[in-house]
Write a structure and sequence with these properties.
The protein is an alpha+beta fold and 152 residues long. The protein is built from four helices and six strands, in the order H-E-E-E-E-E-E-H-H-H.
């Protein structure tokens, strides 16, 4: 993955997720015992409620791991069960059913439609209806849809 490819991917993730702040860096990920260059992307989606997104992505594998984190009562971030893992053909989308508290489950439920949409727009081939995909590309330019290879 070249530096330019990383910058393009970071710009895409920022466009899709609309974070209030973002950091990203080039990383080498080990996927099935092989080293793959990729990106580590962390963004703060909601500063007030400290809701964060972490993504570990390689394009060569392909491998996407996108996690939604919420604050916990002990001043640390907790994995809230909003989790999308894609390795090759298999996509696992955790619907937040293993969230530790009722409040967390409700937050995940509230954010899940956006999380699904943004995972798909980020390049993860999650299952969605044609109607959902048509809704999800609203507001994107024709060039973005084409460049991101989004099939509606």
């Amino acid at each position: 993955m070249t530096e330019q490819e990383v910058e393009v991917l970071a710009a895409r993730l920022t466009r899709v997720w609309h974070p209030e702040s973002v950091t990203w860096s080039v990383y080498d990920w080990v996927v099935e015992s092989e080293l793959h260059p990729g990106i580590a992307y962390e963004s703060q989606l909601d500063v007030e409620r400290d809701i964060r997104l972490r993504a570990h992505i390689t394009l060569s594998a392909p491998f996407f791991h996108i996690l939604l984190f919420l604050p916990s009562s002990i001043d640390t971030l907790q994995d809230c069960g909003g989790d999308c893992l894609w390795f090759g053909e298999e996509v696992e989308l955790n619907q937040g059913t293993d969230a530790p508290t009722e409040e967390t489950r409700q937050l995940v439920e509230q954010h899940l439609p956006t999380f699904r949409r943004n995972c798909w727009l980020s390049g993860v081939p999650i299952e969605a209806t044609a109607h959902e995909k048509a809704e999800w590309v609203r507001g994107l330019s024709h060039e973005e849809i084409e460049q991101w290879n989004l099939k509606v």
